[in-house]
Amino acid sequence: MHKHRDASQRLTVEFFQIEADSYQKITQIVVNQFQLEPVGELVVGPDELFQEFRLQRKVIGLEWDFWSGYIVVAKTKSAEKLVRKIATYIELHRF
After folding, report:
1. What is the residue extent of each domain of the chain?
2. Using CB atoms within 10 A of its CB, is residue 83 exposed (0-12), middle (13-18) or buried (19+)?
3. CB 15 within 8 A of CB 69
């Protein structure tokens, strides 16, 4: 697990060891566990997958790309605590 701020200063947590074929499973578990609602559709590219979700006014991204693995990113400042909770949940469950 690697925490940092991206170029837009959003809190970002990366899990380098998680492969693309685990994206759907982990995302569904996280969505159910944290009662997230999708914002838009899943975007699938050649080397990336990503979708935004919300809980009240908190918006996060659940993403995967070739370079970073599985990524949880705070799309709003108010979502940073939620991102930390989700990252801890993923780390503890060793997906």
Report:
1. 2-93
2. buried
3. yes
CATH number of 2-93: 3.30.160
Q: Show the tokens assigned to 26.
A: 């982990």
Tokens of 4: 């940092």
Neighbouring C-beta atoms of residue 81, cutoff 10 Å: 11
The pTM of the full predicted model, rounded to 2 decimals, is: 0.94
Residue type, 60: I
The residue with tokens 């469950």 is: 93
Give the model confidence (pLDDT) of 30-67 as tens digits. Answer: 999 999 999 999 999 999 999 999 999 999 999 999 99
9 CB neighbour count, 10 Å cutoff? 9
| DSSP character string of 32-84 | HHHT-EEEEEEEEETTEEEEEEEETTEEEEEEEETTTEEEEEESSGGGHHHHH
Max CA pair span of the chain: 31
